[in-house]
Amino acid sequence: MKSLEVLIVDDEPAIRKVLAVHLTRSGFAVQEAASGGEALAYLSKGGIDVAISDIQMPDFSGIELVRRARSAGVETSFIMMTAHASVDTAIDAIKAGASDYMIKPVRNDEVLHRLMKVADLRRLSSENKVLRNLVLGSRDEMFGFVSSSMRDLDRLIAKVAPTDSTVLVTGESGTGKGVIARQIHQQSQRSDGPFIPVNCGAIPENLMESELFGHVKGSFTGADKARKGLFLEADKGTIFLDEIGELPLSLQVKLLHVIEEKTVRPVGSEQAKRADVRIVAATNRDLGQMVAEGRFREDLYFRLSVFHVHVPPLRERRQDVPQLVRFLLSRGAKRMNHGTELSMEPEVEAILSAYDWPGNVREMENVIDRALILADEGRITTADLPPQIARIIPPAEAGAAAPASGNGLRDQVRRFECSVILKAIADNNGDRRTAAQKLGIGLSSLYRKMEEYEVLGLLKNGQMVVD
């Protein structure tokens, strides 16, 4: 608390001096201003944590000072003082952005108490920002796509994010619909508010209404205390309803009411509560087809799809794959505290670019993480890839390969490598650890290569298959 920089704003010198002396003795760094204009000059320089300001001043009011400071992006907290005990004035001050309010004459102990409250609020706000960055990731960690379809998607997000429009995000599993939802929230005016993700397919149907809208104590068996619900938790922020196609029809009616009325009614309550929430929904299902089949309400579908964005699968935007692989590799290395410098065999990059990625970005991230764990001395080889991916033939080699005869360059290299490994194992009386050491590879790499050869049909029961 003693590190707070405090500005006292009052046109009466005696009041300023008394407060300044008391706060200085209490360990605060104190500045003084005799008018709104002088105060605004101090505030625009930055560094002031809290301003204790009179409301009635000769040039313009303390409430106007708060408004001008907020418009200029000043994050200083305001405690207002007035000699007029007016509720309307207090409300105006709070609406303008003030944190607290005191009636003159103010007592020194009361001022200290109010400053402690503001200090606690500022500390919590700072901690929340740190936690949000940990949960959502900073903007610097966002991947910059190169494909035209994803650049078009970025432009759509930039258009819709500043609005409060409901957004429906569609796309196959693993395409990153949750990342898009977070991006919309981060670029919105609600970015300082909560972002609450909800997996509609993971909540049991009998608990879903309570989870979403809350309940009052005693509303059902086991409701031993009241619960706010996720919509009220997301107040002033964004709620992300993932897998919205899994929402039961009975809940679809209530969600439609929330969208239209901006209120929620907890289970067991007769009173509706206002919920200032932006809704972003996502699905990998065809909601239009579900509407035609009577499994999804048409009116809710229209409400959710006010603004619709579709995330294309990776196989339709292969231009993104090489850079996305490097991005996930770098991020994964940081997350796993990979100390060594990483490299990747050119053949690995070619294979990853040729693969169709049916699981999209999620599958790619899993494959990269697996390779990071298995890589020896920081170098990722084909042996570090799952067998079903390692056997992919890159387009550059496809024409030269001769699968039917097995005489393609890549096939011959694999056969030669397999024979060298088998000979090393035989020369060391079946001791695979010693064989790996003699070959200059890790034991795990040797096992992975043999597993790959078995999948490819080059090995069977530890013996090389002869055509």
Summarize it.
This protein is an alpha/beta fold. The protein is 47% helix and 13% strand. The modification 4-aspartylphosphate is found at residue 54.
Description:
Mean pLDDT is 84; it is low at 133-140 and 398-405. The protein is of the alpha/beta class. The chain is elongated and about 100 Å long. It has helices at residues 13-25, 36-44, 62-71, 87-96, 108-136, 148-160, 177-186, 205-213, 230-233, 249-261, 287-292, 298-304, 321-335, 346-354, 360-374, 387-390, 395-398, 409-427, 432-439, 443-455; strands at 5-9, 29-33, 50-54, 77-82, 100-103, 167-171, 195-199, 238-242, 263-264, 273-274, 278-283, 307-311, 343-344, 379-380, 459-460, 463-464. It contains 20 helices and 16 strands. The protein folds into three domains: 5-133, Rossmann fold (3-Layer(aba) Sandwich), CATH 3.40.50.2300; 146-312, P-loop containing nucleotide triphosphate hydrolases (Rossmann fold); 318-464, Helicase, Ruva Protein, domain 3, CATH 1.10.8. The strands form five sheets. The chain has a five-stranded parallel sheet with strand order 2-1-3-4-5, with helices on both faces. Strands 7-8-11-6-12 form a five-stranded parallel sheet. Helix 1 links the parallel strand 1 (5-9) and strand 2 (29-33). Helix 2 runs parallel beside helix 3 (62-71). Residues 5-119 form the Response regulatory domain.
